[in-house]
Structure formats: structure tokens, C-alpha cells
Design goal:
Blueprint lengths: L1 E4 L10 E5 L4 H11 L3 E5 L2 H6 L5 E5 L25 E5 L3 H11 L2 E5 L4 H7 L6 E5 L8 H12 L7 H12 L3 H6 L2 H8 L3 H7 L10 E6 L2 E5 L19
Parallel strand pairs: 1-7, 2-6, 2-7, 3-5, 4-5
Antiparallel strand pairs: 3-9, 6-8, 8-9
Helix pairs in contact: 4-5, 5-6, 8-9
The protein binds D-malate.
């Protein structure tokens, strides 16, 4: 069955879970692994991320969308163009804890974003028990995540839940990814703190072939790696406007 969890609270055991936080955590993870970080350690809290700090590790994340003072980076995808160390530690409000929660119960967890939409969809071929997990925002659904879940769901064969059908309806409503993202509360919140460019960056579709996978590493920590990673393989997109 193809299913969609609209928020982290709906995460359940599944053969494959795809965690989606388009604005911005899973988009940032795809970028970070593409740029050459060997792994991303997702922490379920800022305090836990601080405990993971070590030489060679870069600390990234946000609180109320903005970078923390003692962190090396925020959560803007452009911050991950080049690796500043070997491993990335990421603490975010919704995406990182959702990855931790899914890794605790699903047999396999993939990291989904619009940036790697086709690659993730292809990786789900033949899977019959799939939960597309929208990270949402503080317990409420995020339109941009539901849009991406609907795009994946509609491309998969087989039976689906009403939640998956509802996500597909949302996806069908928007002719472009940017249209869906810019209509979301999260996009407005990012614009409110001067980060509207991040919305455009996260709306780019299928530039990456990376299919990152997450496993539980320790309590409250998910280890994300990418077996099919090809460093710096993000396709260039000279005319960004064509995808908006
Ligand atoms: C999150 O995980 O809460 C989000 O990615 C928030 C953001 O940084 O935009």
C-alpha cells in the first residue's frame, strides 16, 4: 500500500519510509551529500547536536528558521555547496527529528526532496509497503511536503490510501513546484526572515540522482549516507526559470 503521513505523529512501521521536508531539511541533506560530506548525522534536538560536535564535524541547523550562534551553518541549501569538514551534523525543528523517528520504526528510510524527486521515485520501484512521511511544521502539515509526497505517490503503481490520494490531488493542483512551494506557510515564513531564495533553490526538480538512506545511529540520532553518491554531480541548470 502507498500511504502518506501528513505529520511526524503519523509515522508507522513500513518496509520503506520516505521522509520529506522540502523546506528545507531534506533538500539541504541532498545538497550536503552531493557536495562531498561523507554523512549527515541528524539530531532530534539542538542539545544533542552540540554533544556530537568533534573535530572534522560541521554543525548546521536552525531555530525559528535562522542559524544558531554557535553553529557553523544554518539550514540554507546554498550553505552546503562545498563541504567545510568531513561529516555534517544537522539539527532542525521538523526534518531532522522526523528522520530520527522514521529510522526507529521503518525497515528502510529514504530522504526525499524535489531536488532528487525522480531518483527517489525510481528507487521505490517494486516496493509495496511505502509510507511517504511529510515532516510538516511543528505538528501541522506543510503544503510543500504534501505536494512532493503527491508527486511521488502518483508515479507509483498499486493500491493507495486516501491520504495518498489526497496528496496526489494537492500535487495536481499546482502546475509548477515553485507554485506549490511559494503558496505554503513555510515559504512565507522564510520570506519573512529574508530567505526567499531558499524557496527557489528547494523548488528545483530532479537535479540530483542521490538517494540518501537513514538508519538509527544512537538514541535521537539518524545516520544518513548515500551509496549512489557521485560527488558534485548536481546537474547544472542554466535557465532556472524554466523549472519554476
Ligand atoms: C525543519 O526541519 O524544521 C525545517 O527544515 C525548517 C527550515 O529550516 O526551514
Amino acid at each position: 500500500m502507498i500511504d502518506v503521513a501528513f505529520t511526524r505523529a503519523e509515522v508507522r512501521p513500513a518496509a520503506v519510509a520516505v521522509v520529506i521536508d522540502v523546506l528545507r531539511a531534506t533538500s539541504s541533506i541532498v545538497k550536503a551529500l552531493e557536495s562531498g560530506y561523507t554523512c549527515v548525522l541528524c539530531a532530534d534536538s539542538i542539545e544533542r547536536a552540540r554533544e556530537l560536535r568533534e573535530p572534522g564535524r560541521v554543525l548546521a541547523g536552525e531555530q525559528d528558521l535562522v542559524p544558531l550562534e554557535d553553529f557553523d551553518l544554518g539550514n540554507s541549501p546554498e550553505g552546503f555547496e562545498r563541504p567545510l569538514g568531513e561529516e555534517l551534523i544537522l539539527a532542525t525543528t521538523n526534518g531532522a527529528p522526523t528522520l530520527v523517528a522514521a529510522a526507529d520504526v521503518a525497515e528502510r528510510v529514504l530522504v526525499g526532496a524535489l531536488l532528487n524527486l525522480d531518483a527517489v521515485t525510481e528507487a521505490l520501484a517494486g516496493e509495496e509497503d511505502v509510507q511517504l512521511v511529510c515532516a510538516g511544521t511543528k505538528g501541522r502539515l506543510g503544503l510543500e511536503d504534501v505536494y512532493a509526497a503527491g508527486r511521488i505517490s502518483v508515479a507509483l503503481p498499486g493500491a493507495r490510501t486516501d491520504a495518498a490520494r489526497a496528496a496526489e490531488c494537492v500535487a495536481a493542483r499546482y502546475p509548477t513546484p515553485y507554485g506549490a512551494l511559494s503558496d505554503s506557510e513555510d515559504a512565507r515564513a522564510l520570506a519573512g526572515v529574508g530567505l526567499e531564495d531558499d524557496v527557489r533553490a528547494c523548488a528545483r526538480e530532479s537535479l540530483s540522482e542521490a538517494v540518501p538512506e537513514a538508519v538509527t545511529d544512537a538514541e535521537g540520532v539518524a545516520l544518513v549516507t548515500c551509496q549512489n553518491q557521485r560527488q558534485n554531480s548536481m546537474k547544472t541548470q542554466p535557465n532556472l526559470a524554466c523549472n519554476l
